[in-house]
Structure formats: structure tokens, C-alpha cells
Amino acid sequence: MRRAILSISFFIVVLSCKAQNQQSFIKKGNDFFKKGQLAEAVASYNKVTEEPYKYTALLNKGTALYKQKKMDEALKAYNQVSVSPNATNLLKSGAHYNAGVVYSNQNKVEESIEAYKKALRLNSQDNNARENLQKALSELKKSGGGGGSDPKPQQSPSKLNKSQAQQQLDRLEQKEKNTQNKVSNKKTQFGGSVGKDW
């Protein structure tokens, strides 16, 4: 009986050490990132292989790759998080949001719109995703008029025409007004506001 208890205790200690090790790789990667040592940060994030830590490491890795202007690799890291059945919805939402930012910087407006929508479906409280979605829809509306020298926007309106984009923008604006009304009603119901959190 004593051997069984001893082996179980040893297993718990080993698991605890592994978790600390995984977290230390993320911390080291974050330290490298803050110092601008992006290749070292990516290498540290790559050492994280255990769940649930690997999804945080993948998001951070994607950001480091993005900062290095390795857009396709960044998107690949974000995609690994967004399609994983074991990642939390919050992490998946962050992955979609980050992918939307990459697409926006590549002037892939329609892809960014889809990414922001996916982020909001997973986390409706993500105000940055909501704002960026509205900007992307506005950009799509502007480019729908044509006249630009870039041939890509002229080829892409087949998925979403000008009136559809305007309808989506109008729906989002109405949803935001409804949300603001709900928040202001709750504030008055619970005694006021604590102010902005930034």
C-alpha cells in the first residue's frame, strides 16, 4: 500500500514540474519578445508542446512571426489555434482576431471581415474585433465603387456587393447601439459607471 501512495505522489510532482516548465518557456518567449529578440521568442514558444499551454504559445508565436513580417507563418500559427477542438473559445477568438489584423495589413479585406466575424461569434465582447470589422466593411464599401489602380478589389466584389456590405454595416451599427443601450440601462440599474477601463 505504501508503494502505491508513493508512486501516485511522484506522478503529481512530475506533472507539476512539466506545467512549470511549459509556463517557463512561454515566459522566456515573452521576455525575448519584449526585448525585440523575435527569433529567440519563436524558438522558446516552439518548445511548448503540452496542452493547454501550447495554444497560448502558438498565439504568441504568431504575433512574433507577424512582427518579423512572416505573414503566412503567422496565419498558420493562428489557424492551429482556431481549428483546435481543445483550445478555449477565448483563445480561438484571439486567433481569429489576429488573423483579421494580418489580412487587413495585406489588404485582404474580405478575409479580414470573415476573421473578425469569427472572432465576434466566439467572443461577442471583443470591442477591437467589432471596431476592426466596421472599418473593414467601410473599406469594402469604398473599394466597391471601383476606380482604384489595384486589380484585386475590382475582381472581389462578387462575394459581397455594395448594398450587402451596407446592410451588414447597418446591422452592426444597430447591434452596437442596442449593446450601448443595454449597458447604459445596467449602469443606471446598478448605480452608475466606474468609467472607461483604459
Explain this structure to me?
It is a single chain. This protein folds into two domains: 19-87, Alpha Horseshoe (Serine Threonine Protein Phosphatase 5, Tetratricopeptide repeat); 107-177, no CATH class. Helix content is 76%, strand content 0%. It has nine helices and no strands. Helix 2 runs antiparallel to helix 3 (53-67), helix 4 runs antiparallel to helix 5 (89-105) and helix 7 packs antiparallel against helix 9 (162-189). The chain is elongated.
Instruction: Quickly count the helices.
Output: 9
Unreliable stretches (pLDDT < 50, length at least 5) are: 1-15, 145-158, 187-198
- The radius of gyration over CA amounts to 22 Å
Strand content: under 5%
SSE arrangement, N to C = HHHHHHHHH
Can you give the helix content as a percent range? over 70%
**Mean residue pLDDT:** 77
Protein structure class: mainly alpha
Tell me the span between the first and last alpha carbons. Answer: 57 Å
Task: Tell how many strands the DSSP assignment holds.
Answer: 0
Tell me the quaternary state: single chain
Instruction: Specify the biggest β-sheet.
Output: none
Q: How many discrete domains?
A: 2
The best one-word shape is elongated
